[in-house]
Amino acid sequence: MSESDGSGVATLLELQEQDLALDRLRHRRESLPERAVLAEHERTLAGARPRVAGLRERRDEVAREERRHEDEAQAVAAQATAVERKLYSGEITSPRELQAMQSDIDSLRRHQRTIEERAIEAMERREPIETELEALQAMLAARESDANAARAALAESEADIDIEIEAARAARRKMADGIDEKLLTEYEQRRARARGVGAARLVGNTCQGCHLYARPRARSRPATTAAASWW
User: Fold this and answer.
1) pTM above 0.70, yes or no
2) 161: closest CA among 39, 15, 12, 35?
3) What is the CATH number of domain 3-229?
């Protein structure tokens, strides 16, 4: 480690403290509890939305099947009714022909009942799907409302911290203006390499940034005097 003297040292150490304060503010912003609450709601929503889409698809598929059977049953019923009308119209007098028509009616009615049973089966499959879908949609709506509230709360908290961050940045700019450009550049480079710490006080023989012991050397100041330490 080497010591750095001059009038800019004190300001450089103040700048380091200001940078650390800014880092703490940024960390505070990223660690807001509202952010975790919002993330939890968004995870729940992300998991629920595909389930809702899947249930809707299943419901619609079964509903289409149900309608298809209902339409077919109505068409067969209409056919049977038309034959019945002709049977009882008195237009047909041949016993054999009348018997054949009655046989057709019986066959059509049986087919109608079979199709109606299929429609009922489809309806019975659809109803529990709709019940599950309605419950999931209600939960989804509640979660979306909670997420919106959390998002608004997060934005408010972020705005409060952003005011502090901007004030801290303004103070930092003012401090940086009073430091030699070369010294400031070296500080910035070291800070980028050392996890945000570019300078620290050297009190006695101990660096307050890395907490390492420095071998005593001859200096023009008492050993207890603070100086800037680089690493």
Assistant:
1) no
2) 35
3) 1.10.287.1490
- Note the pLDDT tens digit of each residue in 123-143: 999 999 999 999 999 999 999
Residue type present at position 218: A
- Calpha distance 32→123 (Å, rounded): 49
Q: How far apart are the C-alpha atoms of 161 and 26, rounded to whole Å?
A: 8
Sorted by sequence, the CB contacts under 8 Å of residue 181 that are 6+ apart come out as none
